[in-house]
Specification:
Shape: globular
Mean pLDDT: 91
Number of helices: 9
Largest sheet: 8 strands, parallel, barrel
Strand content: 5-15%
Strand order of the largest sheet: 1-2-3-4-5-6-7-8
Order of helices and strands: EHEHEHEHHEHEHEHEH
Radius of gyration: 20 Å
Low-confidence stretches: 1-42
Distance between the termini: 31 Å
Structural class: alpha/beta
């Protein structure tokens, strides 16, 4: 979920918090009935982008932005409305005017600015050294992670998902920050924080709140706070992986009951996601994943996009989950962007998503438009 619009690109990478159709655009998805769940299963290559919407903007300004996306061949937009269903409902007809699918993108377990959650300090995740994300967030001030185990925080998150999933005309609910805080940052970001992360450091190891530790102790007859090296206890690791999975599974039920699909922004491939942020997305019940294969954050070359895409596709074999590669466009030359799209497509991705829409330059738009007519 490192963000260049309000929070730098999803520090999902998260700290600085997809249909090349050769001939004609695909029919867009928008079923709002529970009987006929909308589908994003298409044979053609798909183009998406992530964007953040401010409710103070006029409809005319959104129309101008969405027209650019439609005119340049995008098929879908993932819109962060900060969990606001009214703003999302306002934007759906404007997007559809330009033949764009709308996907409701929301920060899930990381909830900066959540006024309801802020009234409940006990809902927030706690690090191994006892620091709560409520008042001592790791890395950056907007890292306000909720505990995925506590009943009240889970139900709050799921209620927000349900509110957005009920908006008519939305194709999917899009999970972002659906994980724990980063135990390891991408290597390219470490110098910014003057950090060395060669082991799992207590400050970045979550969640050790009383609910997590007591529930784990009841099940496994040992307390994580007593471990001399928690990193090597597989039951404790799986406990946390499964707490995230449980929220995804509930979100899947909610979205499908409302005639929507479930999509998710995830770390580059399952083994890496497992290692870095307690996220094993190949085990999830989800319709499509958009792994953020942001090579620049890992000091990798463009061909790494192909490697990570292929790894994710292989890990999803036998599952009814599509993979659409996420590409970080800032700092990319047009030639690099062309190669990034090729790497994703040739290694099995069903499409690509660009982070983020407003950051795409005119030269990059020409590459994106041309990619539809190879």
């Amino acid at each position: 979920m490192i963000k260049l619009t309000k929070f730098l690109p999803f520090l999902a990478l998260s700290i600085f918090t997809l249909n090349i159709s050769c001939e004609t655009k695909k029919e867009k998805i928008a079923s709002s009935t529970t009987e006929e769940t909308s589908t994003i299963k298409e044979e053609s290559f798909k183009l998406w982008t992530w964007i953040t919407a401010e409710k103070t903007r006029t409809d005319e300004s959104f129309d101008e932005e969405f027209k650019k996306y439609g005119d340049n061949g995008l098929d879908a937009i993932l819109i962060n409305t900060y969990g606001d269903p009214e703003l999302l409902a306002r934007l759906v007809p404007i997007a559809k005017k330009h033949n764009l699918e709308v996907h409701a993108w929301m920060f899930t377990m990381n909830r900066p600015g959540d006024k309801i959650a802020e009234q409940h300090p006990e809902w927030y995740a706690v690090s191994r050294d006892g620091k709560s994300c409520f008042d001592e967030p790791p890395y950056v001030g907007y890292y306000k992670w909720l505990c995925p185990t506590r009943k009240e925080s889970r139900e709050h998150v799921l209620s927000l998902i349900e509110g957005l999933a009920k908006v008519e005309g939305v194709a999917s609910f899009h999970l972002d920050y659906i994980r724990f805080s980063d135990i390891f940052l991408p290597i390219g970001l470490l110098p910014k924080y003057d950090l060395k992360q060669e082991t799992e450091l207590a400050r970045y190891d979550f969640c050790y709140c009383v609910v997590c530790t007591s529930e784990f102790e009841k099940e496994h007859h040992k307390n994580p706070k007593d471990f001399s090296n928690p990193a090597i206890d597989m039951e404790w690791k799986n406990f946390r992986l499964n707490k995230v999975k449980a929220i995804v599974d509930e979100a899947y039920k909610i979205t499908h009951e409302n005639g929507k699909q479930l999509t998710a922004a995830v770390f580059p491939y399952p083994e890496m996601a497992d290692h870095m942020v307690r996220q094993r997305w190949d085990k999830w019940q989800v319709d499509a994943v958009l792994p953020m294969i942001y090579n620049v954050f890992y000091n990798e070359e463009i061909d790494w996009i192909g490697y990570a895409t292929k790894q994710g596709v292989e890990d999803l074999k036998g599952k009814d989950t599509e993979l659409h590669t996420g590409i970080y466009v800032p700092e990319m030359t047009p030639e690099q962007l062309k190669e990034a799209i090729y790497q994703a497509k040739s290694n099995g991705a069903k499409g690509v998503s660009f982070f983020d829409g407003p950051a795409i330059t005119d030269d990059q738009w020409r590459v994106i438009s041309a990619s539809q007519n190879p």
